[in-house]
User: Fold these one by one.
Assistant:
Number 1:
Amino acid sequence: MSERFRTWWRDRSQREQRLLLVMIALMAVVIAWFFVRMMDDALSDARERHSRAVVEQAEVKGKVAALKALERGAGRRLEAPVDVVVGQSANEVGFVLSRTEPQGRDRVVIAIASARPQAFFGWLNDLEARGVFPERLTARANSDQTLSIEATMRGRGL
């Protein structure tokens, strides 16, 4: 094989040999450029995947911390039935409950006709700290930038 190549190479004129060497050099440059470009793309993809993984890890750590905080509060007992706790808390914050339907000692269905989103979700956080959690929650936007809320709240520790 190499002998056939040497014969073929010697049959070329000096000009053809130079042109072939230039062509091989240019091909090497193009192949190297494609390789570098491919590695650069792979590196940027890896960096992007890494940054997404870091964000997801932080989110998971935050959720784990929230679950641990909930577990620490698991031993807390409510001082009254859930409907009383929710009603008193709503009055303290200034929400008017348009409907309150107790379903046993540990569950209540409530409705609020109009509540500002920030205030409502802040109130939900306060209730969770007291041991009352939304089991089902439906929020619909009103025309005046408030929410209409229907929720089933469940107490823990009763």
Note: The chain has a mean pLDDT of 89.
Number 2:
Amino acid sequence: MIKQLSVFVENQPGSMMNVTSALVDAHINIRAISTFDTPEFGIMRLVVDKPKEAKEYLTKEGFVVRITDVIGAELKDEKGNLNQMLTILAEGKINVNYIYSFVIRAGKAPVMVFHTDDFERAEEVLKAANVQIVKEDELE
């Protein structure tokens, strides 16, 4: 499992920069980011190097922050690999709520980060299909 921060921000200029600035001040490295917005607010989903410390610092700075588990699946940068992983999950009756990727791991394959309601089953299905699951401590 990988810990993900969800930070709620107002939908106005500079709100995301305020989050990233706070993380810079706290010496937190952002490894992956995905955003979602509505007319009034946005959600920043972040994978960082120190999730607990990041949550504490951002909360102290007045942000609303949640930590959730997500799964990281290592996929080679080859045509069709994402589709193959999603097929494995669909055939295993695993719903994917959202997905995003990151590739900042020097010399290693990209990681697809996704959220599901059934983490245990998702990991079991992926491992059975020889998909490499990435753990929090393997992100360095």
Note: The two ends are 14 Å apart (CA to CA).
Number 3:
Amino acid sequence: MMIVLVTIVCLLLGIFIFRKNSDHPNLPPGSFGWPILGETVEFFFGKPENFVTHRMKTYSPDIFKTTILGEKTAVICGPAGHKFLFSNEHKIFTVFRPHSMQALFRSYKKTSSPPNDTNILRQPGFLKPEALMGFLGAMDHITQQQLKIHWEGKHVVKANPFTKTLTLSLACRFFMGIDDNPEWVARLVTRFDDVTLGMHSMVINFPGTVFYRANKAAMAIREELVAVIKERKAALIKGVSMRDILSHMIVVKDATGKCMPEAEIADKIMGLIVAGYSTTATVMTFFMKYIGLNPDVYDKIRTEQLVISSSKKPGEYLNWEDMNKMNYSWNVICETMRHIPPVQGTFREVLTEFTYAGYTVPKGWKVYWTVSTTNMNLRYFPNPDKFNPSRYGEGEVLIPFTYVPFGGGPRMCPGKEYARLAILTFVHNVVNKYRWDVLCPKEKVTGDMMPAPEKGLPIRLHPNGL
């Protein structure tokens, strides 16, 4: 009886607060949905892009209101919305991490930078061209090594598990200087998958829920990373020279002269790996799908890559000049990301009340930014369902702010160039070694914020004999 009474009181309180906070003139059109839950279920289980597209048609093509993950949210749509958001970062908007993400990354503090904030990458220049040039040889070596271990001599493989293993191996090498530890990487893949899924979920820490699995995985990852941090500290004390992001985090001091706590370092490393792991793997996976289904596109890519291969000495790795010759290959990647965006969208918090498209959005609300309002829009991309890399070819001009897979403005993804190099290195090696058939062309794409093929994208390999 007491449980029922408490439940009723909570619901009534939620309805009261819900109605009170909704009492504001000239809000965007739309629905807040149910008290507390809002429209979270429709957002995730109906897929975010379908959720947004339907409400754009129902309410407004520019902006609408909703409630997602317990937050009153304005969804700003279209190229004008992209421009408005990118132009007002740090003025009207600031980054916002959903409560599930805050709970998973425990060193998060409201008054400080989020644990997966990539500012740590910008300061020491880890993502500058000269730093990436130095990593490119290792990137090529690891990619070749992983293809040999997992695909050589096999006829049928699954693309998605492989690309996850590859991108996590690259991330461990780049962020932490860890190489040649395949067992450790394999153990982490499933855990990072669970964390990624749980970052946008209801904070219900009960066995069987998405968040419970994510929280359990995050604790296991954190434990492993703290062990690595302790080992690295000991090596640095002995004078071992290491130039990677983990080592930098260990030795860097704040304004008071204190080093970063181990738990915070672990959270930041975990956040950085999450940010670059699944998104890059997603692009690689769906590249395999679309190229497998479009042999004419494959032939053009292979022609481009063979020209690069013919200029290399035996055993010579890819270099920066090689990457700049992969123009058509990158156009193919751009079209892949248009069809299957590796990130559906992100959230911002409103710093000060603003007006957009004639509607008022109060301070403290959240804003959801998404690429899905333009990528498949007939106005911006003729025949949008067709896979057509020539959209990005020489002489073609896209309408500004219609194609923004890496965001824009001050918070444009700082790892864009790292991702480009990792993806093109994979393209070069896989196309030179194989042709392939997609065994389930109509395989269902699952996931909400992070899309993935339901069966892992099984493919049949045909070695090129090089």
Note: The first strand starts at residue 63 and ends at 68.
Number 4:
Amino acid sequence: MTVDLNQNNFTSETAGPMTVVDFWAPWCGPCKMVAPIMKELEKKYDGKIKFTKLNVDDNQDIAKKYRVMSIPTLVLFRNGKGVEKVTGVYPKSKLEHYLDRKLAEK
């Protein structure tokens, strides 16, 4: 189940080996297109990658810290550090290819 992030749990929830943070907002149309893709990816990568969401409206300081200028934006965290950022809507197959490459980099 996707974890909803906020100021209180952001650091602890992104501390694992690999975490994807979906920066989104309820009013964002493209974010609504990404949400079902993220759910499918979460099932496929269960136990390998943690999937989380951060509402940028409620957590503007965190969005600024990671220089999220537009949404949807996915930030890949490794051991608590944001290492890569992908902005926009991508098809599931392209995100799978990206995540498979990231898992292979270990």
Note: The longest strand covers residues 81-87.
